[in-house]
Amino acid sequence: MTNDPPRGEAAASPAKRLKVAHQSPQPRNSTIFAPFRTIGLVSPTPVPFTSLPLGKTTFQITTSVGHCLHTYDLRRGLRLIFITRPQTPAPITATVAWKERVLAAWGGEGAIQAPGIWVFQRGRKCAELGMPNGSSEPIKELIVFGSWIVGRCLTRIEVWKSANFEHYTTITPLASSGPTRNTLSGGVCNVPTFLNKIIVGKQDGGVDIWNVSTGKLVYTLFPPDLSSGAVTSVQPATALSLVAIARTDGSIVIHDIQTDRVITELRAQSGHNANITSISFRTDGYGAGEDGQESGLMATAGNDGTDVTIWDLHNGGRVVGVLHGAHNPPSSVHGGVSGGISKVEFLPGQDVMVTSGLDNALKTWIFDANSLSTVPRILHSRSGHAAPVTLLDFLPTNSEDADATGKWILSAGRDQSLWGWSIRQDGQSGELSQGGIRKTAKKLGLLGSNLEIDSSSSLDDLKAPKITCFACSLNRDGGMGAAPSAGGIWANVASKKGTHDASDSGMTGWESIVTGHRGDKHARTWFWGRKRAGRWAFETTDGTEVTSVGVSSCGTFALVGSAGGSISMFNLQSGLLRQRFPAPLNPAQAQKLKLEQSDLTRASRNTPRFRPGTGKHRKAVTGLLVDPLNRTVVSCGIEGKIKFWDMHSGVLQDEIDWSRTTAITAARYYMPSDLVAFSCDDLSLRVIDLETKKLVRELWGCLGQINDFCFSNDGRWIIAASMDSVIRVWDLPTAHLISAFQVESPCTALAFSDTGEYLATAHADSVGINLWNNRTLFTHVPTRKIGDEEIMRATLPTPSGERGQGLLSAAFDETEQEFPEEDDVLIDQSPADIDTLSNDLLSLSLIPKARWQTLLHLQTIKARNKPTEPPKAPEKAPFFLPSLTNGRPEPKVVVTNGASRSSADNHTLSHLSRATTSLTQSEFTAHLGTFAHQRQNGDPDPLLTHLSALAPSAADSAIRTLANLDEMTAFVQALTVRLRQRRDYELVQTWMSVFLRCHGDVIVGQDNENEGVKEALRQALRNWRQEQGREGRRLDELVGYCSGVAAWLRSTR
Question: Are the C-beta atoms of residues 567 and 621 closer than 8 Å to each other?
Fold first, then answer.
């Protein structure tokens, strides 16, 4: 686009390594993981959404997720239909929908990135607006009306023509005398029937009316009181020439801009949107008046509140309803969880209201026509985590739904919620319900009709506390058919005594997820199939906080560890306590233990190493797991001890004590190999073998606290994330660090899919979940040991997946990324230009096996393919079919040696054959002559490369037509040199075999005239035989050695 001056301004091939002297730059991506995309983002930014009607059938609602836009279809239940690409160079600051297009303003935050405006249609960039020279302020708001596009910046207004997207003018409001000068605080709109006029709110409380065509100030509306504060929102009303103006003191003024007269002044009550930043009017003509059949309904909301206030503007205006808890409260109110309402809007001509908030949620509300309530009910909702994710895990495999393996992610965040995310279908993702929270809040008065409520109360206060640990097994999950609880969710929190009837759950399945919560002594259960909270809340036996949980692989038993060191096992079907670790002693066991302690001699001889009832953890339990046969329970504690318990008796069997060196913070179990990994506070990862109970690996390298770690799907790698923002990958067989990449913010949680396709990560500054592709599934990735100096910075995945690499693109990626060792550097070389890797190795050629085998048996193939009888002349065609010869005589068939060919074809083929043979022999002879001329220091590469490129028949013809003894001698010497180079071993054998078969009679024959030349040929053959014998013996030794080693490895001794 052109940028006219303002008018009317108011005041490659595969890469291999080669040694060089300098160091190459490090690559920018991880060696193993490639960014794929980000999920879980709906509306995480303060940029308001924008809506667009599509005929009379549906609306499209577009939200900003940072550098791209998400578009949802209202008729499909807010289904995601478009994600814009490419991504904007800087975060998006404003959006507006217009004629099936969406305009997005980005950049301008500081002096790093100049602002810009892109135009998207159906998720693709189709145009770009021209920006004025020297523009550096971010565009905070965009509107489109008539033939104009208007953008509100901090201190000026930019105007473009909507026909060609060219910049038209820049409007700079007059500076005021106060400290705010000419700052535009919020709100820009156009009033219907006011041609080319816009209304802009200012920091000093005034409202300016500008003519964008002439660039002149038309009028200024002054605030009714100097203490009213800055304008926060302006919105045209449904009546002509009326505009609603909100200011920071909580006042809302309905102003007639044509007569400069205040029609109505409203003020939000304490606790209800004191700072109003969004205003909308219902336009379907209903909702107001005594019977609700009149127009005049207004909704207001603020970015520092959670409620939407509904106003009836008749008779001076009054509050007729408050939608409490529409979104989460802002972070300053509720401990770091993002919240506040960024925009509220009535859809044109509909009884539907749309809200978006900083809690990463987009919701639609509907007003029931026959309902006496003036508060709308929820219609659709799309949301995600409102706070950064702290726990991640891929759902394990169950016995029935194998197709879903690795396609669902379970996550928990600081917003007290538990989510399930589908990688395949975004619309299937959702939060696991914690019951009727809004219904409970209404009973408690939080959502009642009374307007005076406790401002400190929130819907989140009715949720379970923040989840600190969870465990899952789907083998007994009932799916959607699981029996619901008759007594409500977590019904045994009050420890009600009574019979437990598990017959219904035995037929339909039971809960599959167990969670521990901060500051809570109960571990809670969840139904995965029903996506809701379960029946049980398991209390720790010592009454302290739950610090770790575990579920057996069969899905029947849940383990709960506490901050006091107690471990309890519950039955998920019945909710009953089944075992404690250590198990409490009955009177008989206690009496026996007392007698053993009194008789020290007998106790020392007969008692086991660990007595029943002993071995309890002294501090918090940080990890719990069960072996697949339900025989052994493994626990670890912050005191640095690992304990192995008998699952059925509750007796301690063995113990590993690291208390003198470190404390254990978490444990991960890889079931197929019986390996357990522990993270320690000395920044190390230790791996033990569950069978031998021995330490097998110690992994070092983290420079900060280890936030999370996991095994790969095949158990070969351990991936760990630490506070230094680096994700590291260790190879377990070698204990080497094979990959490490640094991200922008610390990774707080990670998980590896059971299929090996994805690595999922969560980060401290984002509410989304990042997915990375495993490149080793599709291409070779070097897994050599790396050092700390080779840690690279990686680009995080994006919601649009623009900078990412999908599965198909990774599968067909022809570029092979290799990384330098010491002073290595990457250069482009073809495989044919690479010599043997080592002088001790024997290299074969890259020639297909069929080619040199055909050359070796060419005469046999020709004899087998020889025709058995001459071809027969075709039968005479019927008289009514035209002749192909068109009256010309048919060519005469020549029969030679049983084969037939037409004379014309015979002449043509003979000519072509002679020309091809002559050309081949001349080029081959030229290369042979060059090598013979430089026999002492000659290079056989040109000669043998040309010979290997020939077809089998051409190569046979070239060897057969060696003209004289000198050429034969040179050819043998070339093969000897190549054999000495230990290259093309199978080709050298084939060529020598063909040579001896064709010219063997010449070598052994007598010729007195050329006896001297023939003796040179025989000497060349002796040299070749000597070299061949030496290489053959070396090859036999290597093969014999390798065979012996393989036989020894296969032996059972």
Answer: yes
